[in-house]
Amino acid sequence: MIPQYVWVFARRWLWLLALVTIVGGGTSFLVSSRLPRVYSSAAKLLVTPSQSGVVANYNDVLAGQSLTRTYAEVIKSRPIVETAARQVGLDLPYESLVATLDVKPIANTQLIQISARANDPGAAAQFANEVANTFIQSIQSSQSGRFSTIRDALGRQVAQLNLDIADHTRRIAQLAADPALANSSAELPRLRAELAQLQQSYDAAQRSFQDARSSEGV
């Protein structure tokens, strides 16, 4: 049983406890209502290192997870962030822009989450999406340039081998047209051996050239 003096004390000071609670709640509401609203929006990227665009095996999964960590840092780089900001009309210094971004790989996946904060929900979503799009375009441009260099080099190699094959074929035909010279010269067997080697090299270079073109397309 609660002693009488406890009830007396509680009745005497209950109003003060209630007042403190009301004032504290009202103050918290007033402060929170005056603070600017901050909205967050997120975009996700899937990293697939395999050429087909589909994860084919466990090694591809590991490679994808490793790339997500690297790409997460690249996404926050100045060129990506500033280009995305210009696209959506944000005129802020890089330090302010990157402070509104949270880019992190999602654990045990090949996903990267890009979160942007803004006072307007539409602006947050627009900036997050544009950062993702800018990063994708940057990667595509880099890959395209790399494949173009490889493709052009292989194309020149194929063209040169084709010329060498044509030259050897012409010289072999000239020697074969003169039986006396062909029988007395060691050049004809040598040219034929070189021609066979050139044809093998041409076939290999042609396959590599076609593979490069296919990879560039993917």
Question: Which features characterize this protein?
Answer:
single chain, 218 residues, mainly alpha, Alpha-Beta Plaits, 2 domains, three-stranded antiparallel β-sheet, 7 helices, 73% helix, rod-shaped
Explain briefly what this protein structure is.
The protein is mainly α. It has helices spanning 4-34, 58-75, 78-88, 94-99, 121-176, 179-184, 187-217; strands spanning 39-46, 101-105, 111-118.
Set out the fold topology.
Layout: H1 4-34, E1 39-46, H2 58-75, H3 78-88, H4 94-99, E2 101-105, E3 111-118, H5 121-176, H6 179-184, H7 187-217
Antiparallel strand pairs: 1-3, 2-3
Structural commentary:
By secondary structure, this protein is mainly alpha-helical. The protein has a three-stranded antiparallel β-sheet with strand order 1-3-2. Helix 5 (121-176) packs antiparallel against helix 7. It has helices at 4-34, 58-75, 78-88, 94-99, 121-176, 179-184, 187-217, and strands at residues 39-46, 101-105, 111-118. The radius of gyration is 36 Å and the shape is rod-shaped. It has two domains: 39-144, Alpha-Beta Plaits; 146-217.
Structural class: mainly alpha
Average pLDDT figure: 77
The neighbouring-strand order within the major sheet is 1-3-2
Number of helices: 7
* Rg computed from alpha carbons, rounded to a whole number of angstroms: 36 Å
Major pleated sheet: 3 strands, antiparallel
CATH structural fold name of the largest domain: Alpha-Beta Plaits
What is the total number of structural domains? 2
Number of strands: 3
Proportion of beta-strand residues: 5-15%
Identify the CATH homologous superfamily of the largest domain. Answer: EIF_2_alpha
CATH class of the largest domain: Alpha Beta
Head-to-tail CA distance between termini: 82 Å
